[in-house]
Amino acid sequence: MSVKTPCVGICSTGIGDSICRGCKRYLHEVVSWNGFSETEKQSVLERLIYLMAQVIDARMAIVDETLMRQKVSEYQGQVRAYDSKYMQAFELIKCLQDQVDTAMLTEYGIELRMAYWSYPLRLLFKDMDDTLYSLSQAHYERYFGRYTQASL
Hints:
By secondary structure, the chain is mostly helical.
């Protein structure tokens, strides 16, 4: 099975960002994606899932994965199909941010951590997206930034 691009159609690498603000891939990954092997694509996706798991686990618990996945399927076309429960939870929050009150997340198989109970979903999604971007930046700087710095 081929690995689908994590692109969300909001690419900021074209305006000079070394990390896409939409999908959180690095510039070289965005540019080279179509030339990557399936293993290379899977590696990129696994990194994004690993970082997303940290973001999700810090803010919420997926208490009923079956229910959450059922709700995700109800939003076909609006929520991207990922195998990862973390990516699906993120996509679901993105979709629901203007439609559902935070307290209603339990109806979707998700319980927020106490520190996030008062967050409106729009703010929660922005917080998660910003944190994912920050984690991606830190990862990029740790593993690729030194090469960029050395080449200057």
